[in-house]
């Protein structure tokens, strides 16, 4: 599936939660089709 028009750097999903008595917790989200290997523009790079 190609979604190059919506690809870009700094567009990953994350949620940070800070409680008064606990350290900050971070939850990171990604889509099933999302690639971990990308070029400088955020477009997927073929994995070998």
Write the topology of this structure:
Elements: E1 13-17, E2 25-29
Antiparallel strand pairs: 1-2
Describe the model.
By secondary structure, the protein is mainly beta. The chain contains no helices and two strands. It has strands spanning 13-17, 25-29. A two-stranded antiparallel ribbon has the order 1-2. A hairpin with a 7-residue loop joins strand 1 and strand 2 (25-29). It is elongated. The chain starts with 12 loop residues before the first strand and ends in a 19-residue tail after the last strand. The mean pLDDT is 77.
Mean pLDDT: 77
What can be said about the biggest beta sheet?
2 strands, antiparallel
Estimated share of beta-strand residues:
15-25%
Q: Roughly how many Å apart are the termini?
A: 18 Å
Shape: elongated
The helix content is under 10%
Low-confidence stretches: none
The helix tally amounts to 0
Tally of strands: 2
Q: How are the strands of the biggest sheet laid out side by side?
A: 1-2
Order of helices and strands: EE
Using only CA atoms, what is the Rg? 14 Å
Structural category is mainly beta
């Amino acid at each position: 599936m190609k979604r190059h028009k919506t690809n870009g750097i700094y567009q990953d999903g994350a949620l940070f939660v800070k409680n008064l008595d606990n350290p900050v917790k971070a939850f990171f989200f990604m889509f099933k089709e999302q690639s971990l290997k990308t070029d400088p523009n955020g477009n997927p790079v073929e994995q070998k």
